[in-house]
């Protein structure tokens, strides 16, 4: 079946001034979109494409008028978003909370300090910070440095013994760390880590293997980082060919201390590490703090525990330490540059809690859908399931995404949002794309890839300085042609930059 762009040129000159966009360049882009959909690459798949002026926003002194797409194909079909959904999550969080927003984490106690003994519990209370203990931010402490900081706080308070327990208070967010629609093969791996009211070390751990000498030999687990003595690993990983990379799948479930490791690691290296999702990051935070205290000769009477619901018992706590995360603008940039699922899902929940008081995935999705509808975006076909795009059943239309991108330009947080998106040919996951073309250094794009879907979305600036928003998704293409499909999508971005 052949496809044709609908309503492409009808009323075109009512959308942009004839001198703003080169009509021949627009025709080349139009032809390329149709050709890709009609190609062998997409014989059994769908290309959704939407390119639209950022209405009412003056760029280079010239306001763009009109809201009709310049180019649109299958733009009202709801397809998997993959990680382009992170644009919605970051835009939402920045709009609702502001770029200066920081997550706070508190070290607290209840009871009394008598001489050098805390007659009570020690609490680590989170507010959903996904970056707590991360090593991404050079000016902020990683997990080890944070644990040392909290040990020193107790020393300065002259606490040498905690009579009670070390409690991880994760009650700020709901206790549903994972979306129901995430698949079994994802949730034990680092990119499937759940989001909690208290996150730590990006909710991941590393497993180090010693590959065998020959392909097919067992690969030995030699350690985990951090050390997790309570986590039982069933290892079925074998040795793969040299250069085959990480082919390990970790099967685990939330709050379970059992994990199954399958797949292969490459031969020819002394050790090889893969990343897994902590089954309960709050539990690990309490465990790690308790172990750090004991190692520093500060005794702890009780074991670690997790508080997931707001207690009905009134307990007065005293704050010993308050830690602030990097600003939201910094976190959003890392999210969009490197496609961090944990951060995007935390943003979804945090923004929704601010707006409605509810943070469960389904409630959060409903809240943010209503938010963007209220900003004038067409959200028909907006059927997302999470904030990261990890869910294969979550979907949206190219028109949804473009209209949300346009609506985001009207918010005071837009400069932070725009700067958070990677630049083609320069930064983030798109740093190697489009080099030597007009798209490099021009197009701001978030990439996405999931189960037979590749997508890009963001902004492009025309030769005359007008800003346009775009979304493109190739769905169910020939699975052997992923690289070629990616090249064709980059070609479309290059043609957009030539407008």
From TrEMBL:
GO biological process, one term: peptidoglycan metabolic process
Keywords associated with the record: Carboxypeptidase, Hydrolase, Protease
Gene Ontology molecular function: serine-type D-Ala-D-Ala carboxypeptidase activity
Enzyme class, UniProt record, top EC level: hydrolase
EC number: 3.4.16.4, 3.4.21.-
Pfam families associated with the record: Peptidase_S13
Similarity comment text for this entry: Belongs to the peptidase S13 family.
PANTHER family: D-ALANYL-D-ALANINE CARBOXYPEPTIDASE (PTHR30023), PENICILLIN-SENSITIVE CARBOXYPEPTIDASE A (PTHR30023:SF0)
Family matches, as NCBIfam families: PBP4 (TIGR00666)
Protein known as: D-alanyl-D-alanine carboxypeptidase/D-alanyl-D-alanine-endopeptidase (Penicillin-binding protein 4)
Origin species: Rhabdobacter roseus
